[in-house]
Amino acid sequence: MSDAVFRGLTRAAAITVLIILSGIIISLVYGSWPALRAFGLTFLVDESWNPVTERFGAIAPIYGTIVTSVIAMLIAVPVGLFIAMFLTELCPMWLRRPIGIAIELLAGIPSIIYGIWGLFVFAPFLQQYVQPFLIEVFGNVPVLSTLFAGPPYGIGVLTAGLILAIMVLPFITSISRDVFEAVPPVLKEAAYGLGCTTWEVARYVVLPYTRVGVIGGVMLGLGRALGETMAVTFVIGNAHHISGSILAPGTTISATIANEFTEAVGDLYTSSLIALGLILFVITFIVLAFARLMLMRLNAKVGG
């Protein structure tokens, strides 16, 4: 294959991605236009979701999407990094392979399996043991008493966040482990030679050297958390309202679309669901753009 043909094939492949992305954006904007024209910007801040009166608002699904993703990342990022650090720096050789296979198996489980397990096993466990404990412990603590208020339903925003944390954990762990293993041994040996502890080597050598890869893994996990559908639909409760308690039922953008798209009757109802898809697309784009900006600032800081 000549250079000209190879260049043409690669360029065509890259342009195809742009064409597909542009087509998705145009379709979402076109499909959501009736809802955006009818409700305007109030669609973004209205909590109403009533197909009978054809009054729709997106703030409840937006809130559920963001809160469940934040809960998932708060748990999965530190745990995933610690697991990756253990596997690359501290784990005995005979134990690395079983743990690595277990992580890869977690990544390969379909999301609907997580949803079924979450609904029939995890949610009842939380309802019986964890949520009553949280309500009792934090019931008199300011702020936390609001976050952990109400009856223990089992399902809810917290349960969905925990399920998402389990689902994104393998992605963050696998990518972090791979980039940690790419650190040149001479850098770590030099740090150990200066008397650094394992934590200091991880903090001042491994993490700075692999920050781009680690942030990439975190963003990949966050992207999956934002768009995850079936597992969340099973355990979040699918309630279109905002509650200060993370134990209460809620909904997410993807769960709302999955639950109601087949039942949507009327152009405005269908258009409102497509508008939710457009909002999810914009949220994902903002998150990725912010991550890219953060990486550029880090690189500029190191270069300066």
What does this structure look like?
By secondary structure, the chain is mostly helical. 77% of the residues lie in helices and 1% in strands. It has one domain: MetI-like (MetI-like fold, Orthogonal Bundle), CATH 1.10.3720.10. Helix 3 packs across helix 12, helix 4 packs across helix 7 and helix 8 packs antiparallel against helix 9. It is globular and about 70 Å long. It comes from Pseudolabrys taiwanensis. It is found in: Cell inner membrane; Cell membrane.
Assembly annotation: single chain
Helix amount, in percent? over 70%
Return the structural class: mainly alpha
**Low-pLDDT residue intervals, each spanning 5 or more residues:** none
The total count of strands amounts to 2
CATH superfamily: MetI-like
Give the mean pLDDT: 89
Q: What's the gyration radius in Å? A: 23 Å
Number of domains: 1
Q: Name the CATH architecture.
A: Orthogonal Bundle
Strand percentage lies at: under 5%
Distance between the termini: 43 Å
- CATH topology name, in short, is MetI-like fold
Just give the CATH class: Mainly Alpha
Q: Give the overall silhouette.
A: globular
Major β-sheet strand ordering: 1-2
Task: Compose a concise summary of this entry.
The protein is 77% helix and 1% strand. By secondary structure, it is mostly helical.
Which labels suit this protein?
304 residues, mainly alpha, MetI-like fold, two-stranded antiparallel ribbon, 13 helices, 77% helix, phosphate transport
Strand and helix map with partners:
Layout: H1 3-39, H2 42-45, E1 49-50, E2 55-56, H3 59-90, H4 93-108, H5 111-138, H6 144-147, H7 157-181, H8 185-193, H9 198-209, H10 211-227, H11 230-235, H12 253-260, H13 267-303
Helix pairs in contact: 1-13, 3-7, 3-10, 3-12, 4-7, 5-7, 7-10, 8-9, 10-13, 12-13
Pfam families: BPD_transp_1
GO molecular function, one term: phosphate transmembrane transporter activity
Transmembrane segments: 12-36, 56-87, 99-123, 155-175, 268-291
